[in-house]
Amino acid sequence: MKTAQNGQIKSDIKILLVDDREDNLFSIETILEKDNYTLVKARSGREALKVLLHQQDFSLILMDVQMPELNGFETAAIIYERDILKNIPIIFITAFSYDEDYIFKGYKTGGVDYIYKPIKPELLRMKVSVFVELYRKNEQLLLHEKKLLAANKSLQKEIEERRTSEAKIRLLNQQLVDNNAHLKSINEELDRFAYVASHDLQEPLRKIMVFSDKILMKENMDEETEKYFKKIINSSKRMQMLINDLLNFSRQSVSSSDFQKTDLNALAKEAIAELEIEVEKSKARIVISDLPVVWAIPSLMKQLFHNLLSNAVKFRKKGIEPLVHIDAKRISRADQSLTLHSNGNWYYKVSVTDNGIGFDPKYTDEIFMVFKRLNSYHEFEGTGVGLSICKKILEKHNGSIVAHSEPGKGSTFTFVLPEKQSGTKLHI
Fold it and tell me: Would 87 be classed as within a structural domain?
């Protein structure tokens, strides 16, 4: 925190405002001044670039699209050429309503959202507050990561120094046990935090959707206003989906008591039943071979099948009915090449193969990264978190997952599970 010239406490959150009109800058500054953000103004794209040469610690950029010389899209493209600036989200401000191709151009340059003029003060404050909160949480996570890395480095140094002393090694082992207990406690706190954060973030979204629906139900509404409210509702639903996926991705705690003898055939059929509407609408055919019974966490394995089958149906070719095959076989450790965290000798290899649009093999590793999307969400719905959740589920089961694909030739997602989970006294 720091004190401004008028004696008011200013936030460490810095926002760059870019617009060629002074009255627009003044309007945005007036709306946001009650939140005590540190606002920096630029009156052109070139001036914004000059500011960013010397200041990179912005939490958010609000940028007008229509500006002389460099427009908002061109300025954003230049900004994101610098690695140090790639993580600063940009919200475009425009007075016009464009078609989806033009809007997609803004997202393609790296923009995260649009705000239309005339600006609605509460909508602007709400959107800015969401990205500011995400910035703060990210800064906290980076700080925690830095501390953990420093602590880990310190522990490694201590291990090397005490390697010659048996007594000191025993003491160090005890410290590691204590640290593990502390990390487990931190993970449990993160679970609780994720739940509370998701609830707090969704509450204003629900109100936005409810009030927008009520306004849409009123008579004598012009088409343009109705279109804008529908866009608000759709954007709110997308953010709600993103929050739910983030909540699922952030959950950490798993106990050995959660593992049960689980029939994968039954779970795959349950996942298909949950996708009944999508399956019927697309006329998809899903063929299940004989799947094994494994020790697993049923709810997570069902979510795994749900995500993989949902993608197989979603990313289908136009005019071609989706065809999905699920099959499995028992293999030895020597017969597979995936990185596993289990010391067992036998595994089950399960493949989900479709005849969809496929993807370029160069993205094989990237598709499991959180928020990684290969297609526009205007064309295919989703948040880019589903496959990241699949990878995390397999890691919790001491397994792994890979993808094989070519554009236009479908995709195959293959995951490997150990026949027995370490730490369980049960046998299949």
Answer: yes
With respect to residue 407, please indicate whether it lies within any of the assigned structural domains: yes
Tell me if 341 sits within 8 A of 395, measured CB to CB.
Answer: yes
What is the torsional sign of CA 220, 224, 225, 231? positive
Q: Is 80 helix (H, G, I), strand (E, B) or coil?
A: coil
pLDDT by residue (tens digit) across 300-343? Answer: 888 889 889 988 988 888 889 999 999 999 988 766 555 555 56
Question: Can you tell me the distance from the alpha carbon of 120 to that of 122, in angstroms, rounded to the nearest whole number?
Answer: 6
CB-CB contact of 114 with 91 (8 Å): yes
Give the ranges where 83-218 is alpha helix by DSSP (H). Answer: 100-108, 121-162, 166-216
Q: How far apart are the first and last CA of the chain?
A: 59
Q: What's this model's pTM, rounded to 2 decimal places?
A: 0.44
Shortest CA distance to 328 belongs to which of 261, 415, 390? 415
Q: Which residues contact 204 (CB under 8 A, 6 or more apart)?
A: 126
Contact between 80 and 109 under an 8 Å Cβ cutoff? The reply is yes
| 264: nearest Cα among 356, 178, 349 | 349
CA dist list (Å): 111 to 92, 399, 408: 7, 36, 29
| C-alpha span between 365 and 422 (Å, rounded) | 27
The angle subtended at Cα 68 by Cα 62 and Cα 72, nearest 5°, is 30
Peptide bond into 118 cis (omega under 30): yes
330 in helix, strand or coil?
Answer: strand
Max CA distance (Å), the chain: 84
Do 275 and 216 belong to one domain? Answer: no
**pLDDT of amino acid 211:** 79
- Regarding whether 304 and 155 lie in a shared domain, the answer is no
